[in-house]
Design brief:
Layout lengths: L1 H14 L12 H23 L4 H23 L9 H21 L2
């Protein structure tokens, strides 16, 4: 999993160098990033487990699925016509994915 996180970070850094967002840490879009990421992490965990993948691996899959989609969204935003890469949005994505992972784990413990 650490290799996947490293690769994701390297890909993310390469995509955001030309267009950055100038946004605040709070706002409706930050709540949307958090909630969507939490739901995606939990859904990814559940889906992977229903595919017969063990609990630890399904949790990692769900978390990386959510963070990967968050990074993809920021890469999309970083294109010249987009709103710009937002590290703040991405931080809320990671916080949401962590929360979704944790809540799913607690609910299935």
């Amino acid at each position: 999993m650490s290799r996947a996180v490293f690769l994701l970070c390297m890909l993310s850094l390469g995509g955001c160098s030309h267009h950055m967002a100038n946004d605040a840490w709070t706002g409706q879009d930050k709540a949307q990033h958090f909630i969507a990421s939490a739901m995606l992490a939990a859904a990814g965990n559940e889906y992977a487990q229903h595919q017969g993948i063990n609990r630890d691996r399904s949790a990692a899959i769900g978390f990386m699925f959510s963070v990967g989609l968050g990074a993809s969204k920021e890469l999309w935003d970083s294109r010249p016509a987009g709103s710009g890469w937002s590290w703040k949005d991405f931080a809320w994505d990671v916080a949401g994915a962590t929360t979704g992972y944790t809540v799913w784990q607690l609910a299935h413990h």
